[in-house]
Structure prediction request, 1167 residues.
Amino acid sequence: MNLNISYNWLKSYVKTSLTPQEFSKRISLSGPSVDRINEVKPNFSKVVVGQINKIDNHPDADKLHVCQVNVGEKEPLQIVCGAPNIKEGQKVPVVLVGGKVGDFDIKPAKLRGVESFGMMCSQKELGLGEDHTGIFILPDYVKVGAALESVMPIEDTILDIEITSNRPDAMSVIGIAREAAAIMDEKFLYVTPKPNMNIKTSGVIPAKAEIQGDGFRVKPGMTKRGDGATLHVKVAEDKLCPRYSAIVMGEVKVEASPLWMQQRLLASGLRPINNLVDITNYILLEFGQPMHVFDYDKLLGAEINVRLAKAGEKILALDAKEYELAIDQLVIADKENPVAVAGVMGGELSAATTTTKTIVFECANFNPVSVRKTSRALNLRSESSSLYEKGISPENCTAAMMRAIELAQELCGAKISSKLVDVKSYKYKDQTITLDLDKVNFALGVKIKPGEIKKNLEALGFEISSTKTKKDEFKVTIPWWRDGDIEGQHDLIEEIARMHGYHNLPTEIMSGALPKATASVNFALEDKIKDILVGFGLTELYTYSFISEKLVTNVGLKLEDHIKINNPLSSDFEYMRISLLPGVLQVIAENQGFYPSGKLFDLSQVYLPLGANDLADEKFKLLVACFGSEVETVASDARGLLDGLMQRLNIADTTLKSIDGGSGIYVGENKLGEIKIIETKILSAFGIKKAVAVIELDFSEVEKHAKSAPTYKPIAKFPAIELDLSMEIDNVVTFAEVANIASDAGAPLIEKVDFLSVYAGDKIPEGKKALAIRIVYRDLNKTLELAEAQKAHDKVVVELKKSYNIVVR
Amino acid sequence: MKQKLQDLKQQFAAEKASIKTPADLEVVENKYLGRKAGLLTNIMKGIKDVAKEEVAEVGTLANETKNYIMSGLEEIKNSLGGGSVHFDFTVPGNKPPIGHLHLATIAMREIEGILEPLGFTRTRHHDVEWDYYAFETLNMPGDHPARDDWETFFIDEAPIKMNLPEKSLKLVKEGRRVLTPHTSSIQVREMEKGVLPIRMMNISKCYRRQIDVSHVPMFHQFEGLVIDKGINITHLKGTVEYFVKKFFGEDRTIRLRPHHFQFTEPSFEIDISCGLCHGTGKLEDGTSCRMCKEGWLELAGAGMVHPNVLKAGGIDPEKYSGFAFGWGVERCYSMKSGLNIDDLRLLYKNDLRFNEQF
Prediction:
């Protein structure tokens, strides 16, 4: 999780003279990492506080207003403005003529015929925030005519800090300051807030809230408000809400927050609303403690019930959406209705508004799993929920509540009107861990001085004492804010290591015996196949393992044969493929416009379903595809590639057996795969306008037969005789069948039978083709006589006539 | 005829001195030896008129003359030197077919090549995996929010009985099938083989529910895992530094930064100095570098194997320790080569105009 915070704010809690850059570098190496440093400077000049005296409608434009704005000069300025949120009496930032916002120079202008001298600005125009919905309305206390940068701190550096999920305690200004102080060996400037806890009542004698130690230990139950009203707090689900503290404050004055506070909120990307809401957001950033503020008068029965939602209950949340709640979701309810989804978001109807007089501050702790589940189920996330999800300590409520009270007194003139209610279902107990210093030195590979360990851990808030049992051993007490994170000695070792600095540790390569290699996968063969095919000029593809329903059905496969993803990203990625073909055909479809022809391959897994409680059978397949305009060319290319591949893999004796649309590829009885022409029906389903021929091979079968080295054969000592044979033969008879008959008939003299040509058409009878072959005869032991070869050749002709009724041409 | 042949010989002997250029040579060659109207050819046409008893003698003489002329020409040709054939090499020639490995293959091979000499053996497990190995055994029990970080694809909506050997089901009996969201799912699988020490690498596909210019739902990671007696942080640092220097070059610097992963303790992230802004975070024109974070690029996560993970793999954390690291292959490679691929989705779109650039 990333947090944007003002460096100036941070500096109010940690003493440092470092530049933001040096500071960031330092803490990134030992703690939270600063991702970005953004310097903020005024992007404007001559911007002063103005007060709108009068607003008239523009004579010629519906949306424009003509304003008279007092900027502290003798005469007010006339400024034409189109913003929807301006009202008479408001104070606003005004750029004077001759001034500038961003790259925009302000000059006297006429807008639809009315003269305008200056400009009122939004937060966004001033570079202060993202809000561009209207003019930035300033709080009432600012002096008319004052330069904006004199009433609002603008120059600052904003640090964008990444905090890991195990450190919710550091997701705050105070948390980061504490880390930084420890890392840089500087002073942590935090002081526990101590607001005036006198209860202000109208006509009733003031009482004093009970304070014990650094927090409040007040019995749960009912508390009386000064004027006689009450606040009943009841926590029905103490497992889901270990702590709920609340206080009623009256006489609040709701207005814009002071500009120093607005600037800090804006720096963190939060939009200032009014001083009440801003206080809760400020506490969220400062303490990492979510808070909520209710309008006391809107809580029916003055009740706060922390309970599970009832079936069918609904809440209109602060995001103006209505949510239907489920019975396992924790809510804050008044006498009747939910007023907040606990830890996630408040309700619109009980929210504090500008007319609010009396408020209830909530500072509570909720179960992380419950908050997470609720937030997920409602698809509703907030700064609060994401903090609660990480698991913050309930102890964090104490000081945060005090700070909120202090700020409310300071900024809203609020008076405490009730005792502080603090319902706790846990009893805090210190956790301790025994730390063996030998273990530390072993894990880090260097010896760290006990003094350094003690100093660093104490700076982080740990308490150290020695144990009586062993010399090199510490008893370490964990500070409450690290309870969820530090579980054992290994966690303490991490603290020691990072404080020492990973960059200060030496580097080494493992010595020790090499492990027994247990390569279960033939990566070398995968590499070899890829290299062979790339050598043949093919392009390698990586297609997605999951494909769409359409792709599955396009190739005629059945959806039910596929493993289906329960939460696919989109319908494009829904089924785990059982064939590489659909993905590769898709690639051809998408590329055919740019490439008239091509040769591609994909060597990857397919995912065949096994039993209902099993994983998948992940088989590696090789798919080679040739596409182009002529079917004969692509088919012949594919066949050529198959021969080339088999030759390079030293797989001899492959045979092809006809199947529908192609041939099965065999070595003996083992089927390696298929070579085939893709049928038109499939091609048109993909919109492919080319002919496509493919080779599909099972990697595991190829692996069985591939040899790393070829078998050596001596070079023939005696010459060969080549005799050609041209014949007319039935169309359906394959070359392989002819070659097989010939080889048998001419054995043992035939060395090989080569294909020369095939022709069908003119001069050849229907259903026949002209096939020409070349037979190579050789005698391994002597020079073969032509007569001998001719005798064998004649026998070949006889046998071919017998088997296929050929006519020699 | 005999006379004619002898005259021809002398004529050639006289004329050959005048040959100065390859063009001259060609003219002279044609004049004497041309197939249709060469002087020698013309003389030889008279052979039919030669008396029978003289034929042999004339034939010998004719051959002798021919050889004399030819060797003379050859001699001159050699003395004139080469260059007689003119070829315009600026015209593109017959190109052999050029194949293309996919970028992912290229990257994986390079990574494998660096780790192998350190004794890392490559291995591979399942893409479709139990969440037991992806999360449970990695110190992330059922409800752990850290599981959310992985944006996981699930096959099963709810946990089912896992068909695994009894000894593997130490923590739970039921689980969901997932597409492995990281290569670390292999850690406990490797430990369960029961062979120590372990020094393995896994370079495999991973899947996460994200797709945009910088994320693809299928990508590759590589994982290193070392478990032995006496392994500590310095070994992790040493291995990572060795890899980075080999892969990225000696001029890039790395830093180790504390981080958090459930399955390692301590955990860190490894950053490498940015190649674009040379680690300054600022470009030459003073603007912030968009490629990196203040001069550093996040490269990988790493850490010492958490004792709970060792226990889940049946290894005694009191006796053995180890480290693991994992990084994105595509990310790593594009940082190295400065490819600056503006849209990672291109990697698996298989636009051949992209694939054929590598």
